[in-house]
Amino acid sequence: MKQKYLITGLVVATFTSCLTYLTSCADDLVIDTTVDESAYTGIYENNGYLRDGKSNLASSVIELYKDTYTTSVKMGLSKAPGSTTSAQVIIDANYLDTYNKEHETDFELYPEHLVSFKNDGMLTVDVQTKSARTDITIQADGTLKEDKTYALPITLTHTSSDITIKDEKAGHCIYLIKDMRKLGDTYKGEDVVKSFVFFDGTNPLNALSFQLENGKLLWDVVSPFAANINWDAQAQRPYLKCNSYIQYLLDNNEVFLQPLRKRGAKIVLGVLSNGDITGVAQLSEQGAKDFARELAQYCKAYNLDGVCFDDEYEGAYDPNNPALTKPTEEAAARLCYETKQAMPDKIVAVYALRRMYSSKVTVVDGVTMKNWIDIVIGDYGRDPSSNPYGDLTSKECSGQSMEFVRGTGGDLQGQRLINQGSGWFVGFSPKPENYSNVFRRLSDVKTLYGSPLMAPTVFYKDNDATPYQYPDDLQ
């Protein structure tokens, strides 16, 4: 007990002594009241951003199959406002120059007189909500050029004083618009399950053999499989190497590929590793930028609609090469991101195998996966639509993949795909000599599209654009 009192007395005495000292020195003591507030910058701000209301993307591709298309544009806030707040969306033609410079593109402005906003583009965010949207209607007319991408930049303006737009990208969204009204033979509806087919050494014109009784073509995307990523020792960079099959198709692009595009099919070039020091999942950031630019040049030169990456068959990388890096999910995601940056109006698809599609990396440079992957192709027997990664949804993923040579992947299960919300189904290498089995396996397309698949009447031989009679001319 005495010890307790002794300790208490010492504490009181010490406190009294210190108080006396501070009082006597008050005239000499200068306290710096300046606080470094940089760490707190933005915590009181309500940051606004602009997105397409349907896709939640800052850059959205719109294909016009009818004379009028309506979507919504959405302003989101980082937190609910304390009181009702507002802003307005308008077309920002000047921003297109900035966008084209950033992406090294040359998009022209979509005709402004064909665009209208509901309520003059006014947006009102009520208390306890964090977003508001308004409709944007896009008309089409005879002045639009087919097979051309136009850009429509939208920006926020007249924002309330409590809304902060931290940079140009946050305050803009851009629509990349294509007139598809005369290219609609594959269009079977906006919200239906779509189809993707790979042709491996076979004439891709055979996609025309697959037609529904209502006149629509079955395959939405046709992918010649495959070009390769290789190392150019002289130029010291990765480059696209085309084998004889791919090169022949590109050299005769107007004969074997463009007829499909004129019917509405998308041509997406398969890109596969090829056993040397490069690979689609082992490029450095600079290597990915360089290769993405080359892919964009190919797509522009040959009028292709995108690429599909397959992470297989790579060789050992060179750790001393600045264009390369250790094979990782991060490197694979980086290539997808840089490819989308280089050609934002094109398709970036991935074969969901190994590092090319992973839950480990769903964001690159602050940009989420849905902004740099458009289609996820499942391996045979796998269903990525049942568990999409990041902010992707089942609509961007295939629910079934069928291999038509070995017979793996089962028969098409249309109702299952509809029930689980899958966006795609996939076929690989439908060869005319196997048509009887291929068409049997696809018989359930009627469930998907309300129209059965017609029996084949024509087919195409290799390197020949002549339509031959099926099955009479098979021999």
From TrEMBL:
Highest taxon of the lineage: Bacteria
Record keywords, A-Z: Signal
A Pfam family: BT_3987-like_N
Signal peptide: 1-26
Location of the BT-3987-like N-terminal domain: 44-162
The name this protein goes by in its record: Endo-beta-N-acetylglucosaminidase F1 domain protein
